[in-house]
Amino acid sequence: MSEPVATKKPRRGFFKRLRERINSGRGLGLSLRFAGRKLDAELAEELETELLAADVGLEATDRILEALRKKLGGRAIEKDEMVTDAMRDALVELLRPRARPLVIPPDIRPFVILVVGVNGSGKTTTIGKLARLLRDEGHSVMLAAGDTYRAAATEQLQAWGERNDVPVVAQHPGADPAAVIYDAIAAARARNIDVLIADTAGRLQNKAGLMAELEKVVRVAARLDEQAPHERMLVLDASLGQNAVNQALEFNDVVKLTGITMTKLDGGGKGGVLLSLAERLDVPFRFVGVGEGIEDMDVFDAEQFAAALVGNGQG
Ligand SMILES: Nc1nc2c(ncn2[C@@H]2O[C@H](COP(=O)(O)OP(=O)(O)O)[C@@H](O)[C@H]2O)c(=O)[nH]1
Ligand SMILES: [Mg+2]
């Protein structure tokens, strides 16, 4: 049997990009100096304040501080690295269980990826980048323009299709997204396509309508293949901080997420929100995005991400 082909590991060079861009090169942005101090109540409180400000969230912050106390409690801190190394280890502990890359099993065809998330989170861009990654791994790919709400959304997806040389199934604006995706699965099957990636709308101003629409898409896809959509991937804008966590909980209630991709870790995204998510929700992190370009997304790797966040070590 052939190995299931997976988008397993980040490409060479991604660590540098991640590290330079995450929160504009500042990572968690911890500004404390540790050398000459001890991890006493005062320092713990200062750390807590900074972690919370970096979107790490209360639960994950408590866990990290607990790990630091275990390692450093009572000892004199000779070098800052004693704390940052311990911090990196604590982050890896939290993140590693979520580092489960997307695997495309060879016996499922088409493997259907449904991409959900609110408007502007980066869904369509992520689909474009993902199409390229999968194609580079030798998969045949098709896209489905399930965001029928805005004509521009279909055009944007078609542009990514052309750039990657992959076919795009689309209908008229206002068409039923469930119908678009149903037809696309049938078309992918007829053409023996490996992976179908379906875009969706993310109208937050009509939350009940959006959630009903997504439920229907999932239900209708399952008529052609009861396991479909095989991957239900949430795209989250990391710069939203704790709001991203709330979005994840809401979408998970409706479509039972199987993967999360974080975008916009460059710019406003501090990256701490992944720790909060890791603590609050057992859904794998698939990819991380650090820019608008096609090369600006890669597989989530716990060690690499933790190192980029604390701004030390190699990935
Ligand atoms: N800086 C940055 N911008 C991004 C990233 N991902 C997407 N964008 C931009 O965010 C905007 C919204 O993305 P889009 O894919 O249209 O979001 P959608 O509404 O969820 O489909 C676009 O201008 C994208 O270029 C990222 O990782 N970093
Ligand atoms: Mg879109």
Explain the overall architecture:
With 315 residues, the protein is α/β, with parallel strands linked by helices. It has helices at residues 14-21, 41-53, 58-72, 80-95, 123-136, 151-164, 177-190, 207-224, 242-255, 273-280, 302-310; strands at 5-6, 103-104, 111-116, 141-144, 168-169, 195-198, 231-237, 259-263, 285-289, 297-299. The strands form 2 sheets. Strands 5-4-6-3-7-8-9-10 form an 8-stranded mixed β-sheet, with helices on both faces. Strands 1-2 form a two-stranded antiparallel ribbon. Strand 9 and strand 10 (297-299) form a beta hairpin. Helix 1 packs parallel to helix 11 (302-310), helix 4 runs antiparallel to helix 11 (302-310) and helix 7 (177-190) runs parallel beside helix 8. It is elongated. The site of guanosine-5'-diphosphate (GDP) has 19 residues, from helix 5. Guanosine-5'-diphosphate (GDP) binds at residues 117, 119-125, 202, 235, 263-264, 266-267, 289-292, 296.
